[in-house]
């Protein structure tokens, strides 16, 4: 689970994208930070490195990126959290195709990436390959799969519709390209996604907090349907069905049950956002959605169901009601000694 942002418009792009990432990274992310833009010469330009936004501002030229369209990624990796060898600079998002004219980022996990990697590596350069551990970031297979479809003559819309059903797990893909220098493409099954439409501008973020710097200037903010193919252009979002064969389950959340679970767990110990999520996974998520534990496991495993923004909404409601408190804790994770994490506890 990572935190992402994309923007098209006339605001200075690096400060906006980096601030959006910085506001989101304490939920779960900050193992690495990356940004890709289409610059004034209509070329893809990427800067990325390990660490949260504050660190990467110092170690790269990410603040110097310019353009009217850009994407940003704050990475979370369970592997990197425990072993910094999985947190190398070249394993960060966005990833580019062989030609370097497409930049793509991913949220989630591609469960079957190894089989795609084995098939693709004879004909593609995996720039994120780390020979010390014989490993790549799972996301990198997707940019090459999309590129292969585009080379057959397909547009990005058809390429994304072709590739997404071949990827198992939790998957949201977002890309920019020199071929379409004024467009951001999104393909999403169930990952968190919020869209904001403004006058001659558009932004998307994983969590609503990422829109805070400009939210009062946006005309419309909403969460698009699951299983969506989204084309973002200036002041516009075109949303269509991604995969007609993918089943979108109509899950109804009981906020009452979720609130009870949160208060019960925090009554025992303070927890960060991710550990609180997984504690609820054992005790309350299935119950809050009116399914049994086996059904819940199947939804997570087979359909990539990922519940993030409804969780944040309930947490924020509990904070506003004075039932819980939130603060930022800094700890060593991956390659950085000061990774920010939202902590929650009882007052």
Main sheet attributes: strand count, strand direction, barrel closure: 7 strands, antiparallel
CATH topology of the largest domain: Glutamine Phosphoribosylpyrophosphate, subunit 1, domain 1
Instruction: Give helix and strand order, one letter per element, not per position.
Output: EHEEHEHEEHHHEEEEEEEHEHHHHEE
CATH superfamily of the largest domain: Aminohydrolase, N-terminal nucleophile (Ntn) domain
Point out poorly predicted stretches: none
Give an overview in words.
The radius of gyration is 19 Å and the shape is globular. It has two domains: 3-241, Glutamine Phosphoribosylpyrophosphate, subunit 1, domain 1 (4-Layer Sandwich); 255-345, Arc Repressor Mutant, subunit A, CATH 1.10.10. It starts with a strand and ends with a strand. The strands form three sheets. A seven-stranded antiparallel beta sheet has the order 3-2-4-1-10-9-11, covered by helices on one side. β9 (194-198) and β10 (201-205) form a beta hairpin. It has helices at 13-24, 53-59, 78-82, 113-120, 140-151, 156-163, 255-266, 273-283, 285-288, 293-303, 309-320, and strands at residues 3-8, 32-38, 44-50, 69-75, 95-96, 102-110, 169-177, 184-188, 194-198, 201-205, 220-222, 228-233, 236-241, 271-272, 325-333, 336-345. It is 29% helix and 28% strand. The longest helix is centred in the first third of the chain and has 12 residues, at 13-24. The protein has 347 residues and is an alpha+beta fold.
């Amino acid at each position: 689970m990572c935190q992402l942002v994309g923007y098209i418009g006339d605001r200075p792009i690096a400060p906006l994208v980096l601030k959006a990432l910085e506001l989101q990274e304490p939920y779960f992310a900050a193992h690495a930070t990356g940004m890709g833009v289409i610059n004034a010469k209509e070329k893809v330009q990427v800067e990325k490195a390990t660490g949260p936004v504050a660190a990467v501002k110092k170690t790269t030229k990410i603040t110097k990126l310019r353009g009217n369209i850009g994407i940003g990624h704050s990475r979370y990796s369970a592997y990197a959290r425990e072993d910094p060898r999985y947190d190398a600079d070249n394993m960060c998002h966005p990833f580019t195709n062989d030609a370097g004219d497409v930049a793509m980022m991913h949220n989630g996990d591609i469960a079957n990436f190894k089989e795609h990697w084995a098939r693709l590596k004879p004909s593609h350069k995996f720039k994120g390959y780390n020979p010390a551990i014989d490993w790549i970031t799972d996301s990198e297979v997707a940019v090459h799969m999309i590129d292969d479809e585009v080379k057959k003559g397909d547009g990005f819309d058809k390429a994304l519709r072709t590739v997404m059903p071949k990827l198992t797990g939790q998957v949201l893909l977002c890309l920019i390209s020199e071929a379409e220098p004024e467009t951001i493409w999104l393909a999403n099954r169930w990952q968190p996604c919020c869209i904001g439409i403004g006058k001659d501008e558009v932004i998307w973020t994983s969590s609503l907090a990422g829109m805070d710097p400009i939210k009062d200037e946006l005309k419309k903010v909403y969460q698009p349907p699951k299983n969506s193919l989204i084309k973002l252009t200036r002041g516009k979002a075109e949303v269509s069905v991604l995969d007609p064969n993918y089943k979108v389950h109509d899950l109804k959340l009981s906020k009452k049950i979720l609130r009870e679970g949160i208060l019960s767990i925090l009554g025992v110990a303070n927890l960060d956002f991710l550990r609180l999520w997984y504690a609820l996974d054992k005790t309350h998520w299935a119950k809050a959605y009116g399914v049994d534990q086996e059904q819940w496991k199947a939804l997570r495993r087979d359909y990539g169901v990922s519940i993030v923004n409804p969780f944040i909404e309930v947490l924020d409601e509990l904070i506003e009601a004075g039932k819980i408190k939130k603060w930022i804790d800094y700890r060593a994770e991956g390659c950085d000694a000061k990774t920010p994490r939202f902590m929650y506890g009882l007052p």
